[in-house]
What does this fold into?
Amino acid sequence: MLHRLYISNFTLIDQISIDLENGFTIVTGQTGAGKSIILGALSLVLGKRAESDLLFDASKKCIIESEFSTRSKSVKHFLKVNDFDINETLILRRELLPNGKSRSFINDTPATLKQLSQVGGYVIDVHAQHENLKLGERTYRTFLVDAFGGHLDKVSEYRQQFEKVKMLKDALAELESDLFKQKQEQDYFEFLYNECEETSIVPGELTEKEELLKKLEHAEEIKSTLFSLSQLLSNDNNGIVELSFQAERTVAPISSYTSKLESLAARIGSIQLEIQDLADEVNQLESEVTLEPEQLSMVQDRVNLINQLLQKHQVQTESELISIRNELKEKLTQIEGGDEKIIERKKELDRELLILEQLGNELSQLRLDCASSFEKELINHLTHLGMPEAKFKIEFIKTNELEPLGNEIIEFGFTANKGVGLKKVHESASGGELSRILLAIKSIVSNKTNLPTIVFDEIDTGVSGEVANKMGDLMKLISKKIQVLAITHLPQIAAKGNAHYSVYKDHNSEKTLTKIELLEGDNRVIELAKMLSGDKLSTVAKENARILLDN
It folds into this structure.
């Protein structure tokens, strides 16, 4: 149940704190007093998105905090799964900051608006004024039948399976689309792969071939230069080799006279050997250089081919080309095995579809089984609420395929008048009739769910007199099992509450404030008397108010 609602710096509210008890709590106030502001604050702390300009003082933050007591297994599971603290109470808090941003908390741990909405749905049901229109929504009608039937777990199981099937369908469609595109490009992939494969590129090959190409392209120049160098080194008369021999022979006779001359002779001998070795190497290199036009052409073609592939695939090295070749091979392998993979995915989808169909059929049967009880209980309540000729029928229209809500579209047929055919309830019922229908539905559904708190926001719109009295009786009856908060403008309903709060505007400050007050004793009598006769109180109005309270 909702224990406490704290609101500060919100619209016309400076600061209020409302402590609530179990049973039937009434909230009244003149039109424009701010009842909707309080409900709006509650909606924000339950995850509704905030609009701009909601701060009473634009320089301060707004805080809205609600405290619930609950033993719901769903709440505990939610808190555990989402890593929130599990305490004896559930505290939801929303902060609206002056910069337009907002923050949300669950048990003092930061949370998202979606998480606020999820956990809030386990502890409170807010019936806003526009909810009558929700009877026109297929999703809402389906939920009401499922909640009444007590098979929401089966609905959850069906929806999970539906999402699984949807994911498989999407994955299969994507796989088929990809394979179609790949098959369109298969010839091109094969051409690129064969081009890389036939080239048989190895890492480092381009550097090696470019070096060989330089040698072949300049072979004539290299050979001519080496020949000239050989002549310079090895000429019989004045070659460097012969001159080194002469130098060695010249110094040899005097080398034994001193150690320095001996060292000098040794150095000349060493140079002579190095020059001779150099001459031999030049001669060898010169002999190895040959003019080979055919090999030059082959190497040029190879270097050009490798460079063309590098440029085509926009890479820098042979290793990257090899990686591209392997990727192309993998693509071709996937294309070749794509049809088999699609066949396997289709088999898996068929298996999961059978499970979904079975769950859908089970859900359809559960809905069908509870429909007559739903109709009977609802009609009993409507009769009690002043519609003795009311007829209500749940119609199941089979769908052509499985949908997120099941195998059928659920329609509510209704008429309040004898001899008049059934029409869709949201199209045929008046505002007052819709209010009574929704209250009756909430009554029978609340008996089937574990929801601890329900809020009715002027559900009595469009009714008066004895019908209003009956509606109050029904809300009072509901409050025997769960906490009920009712915002009402009817004294017949207000008098039935265990607790009565009045919302009013205080004009005594510089800025108009919305405030709330718990009414007791004479103050409550006066409030009811005003609801009966307006601001001009009379003894008769007060007496009538006391009679309402006594009854």
Summary: The radius of gyration is 47 Å. The chain has a mean pLDDT of 87. The chain has 18 helices and 15 strands. The CA atoms of residues 205 and 211 lie 10 Å apart.
